[in-house]
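Hi support team,

I submitted a single chain yesterday and got back a structure, but I'm not sure I'm reading the token output correctly. Could someone confirm the output below corresponds to the sequence I sent? I've pasted both exactly as they appear in my results page.

Thanks,
R.
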Amino acid sequence: RILCELLAAESDAGRAFSFVGLAQQPRLARSLGEAVALGAIPHFAQHPDLDAALEWCEQRLLAKHVASAPAQELALEAHEALDGLDPEELRCVAALATRCELAPRQIVVREGEPADEIFLLVAGRLSVLAPNADGQLRRLTPLSAGMSFGESALIARGTRTAMVRAEEPSVCWVLRRDALEAASIARPRLMTALLASLLRSSLGVVARLTRELAAARSTRAIRSS
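Hi R., thanks for writing in. Yes, this is the structure output for that exact sequence:
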């Protein structure tokens, strides 16, 4: 009863709510279902895990604050990963890159695939996903326009270490390692300048992931205590 009163008050204040793992609490689920049927609380979303719930929250916040603004595609030459290139090198990269449009939920790369391409995101939103200890996919970080992934393709011909999925209509420019290597023969500075720009961009992503990991560890420590 107290929980239902709290949820009703939150709803009256214009706040939405959802539940994670409610299927594991059948008595609570039944009580909440009865409250919805009586009109005491509004219908609510349910999620299988915290990552899905956080994504739901993010989408609602984004829809509230940016839905009125038309989505604009970032010009390739304005991408952060190309910040250190001169005009001629930018033209060379633009000639080598392939524009790729992605549909919502489309898989861009899968874990274990050959890593021989780099992706420059210029529109939309992607998610980097990796399996947790239970084998369930966990979202590591979101990617937005101006960010890149697959930088390791320029360092070593390894394999992808995570899955990347489009969460909404998105656009990437794709650069193949072999094409860049061939172009760098005529322009030796091209690869060096591109790697330097990519390193600066990657450091920002790594710093954010480090903060997320530290926050997650802190939360687990508090729960265990």
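A quick pointer for reading it: The chain has a mean pLDDT of 83. Let us know if anything else looks off.

Best,
Support desk
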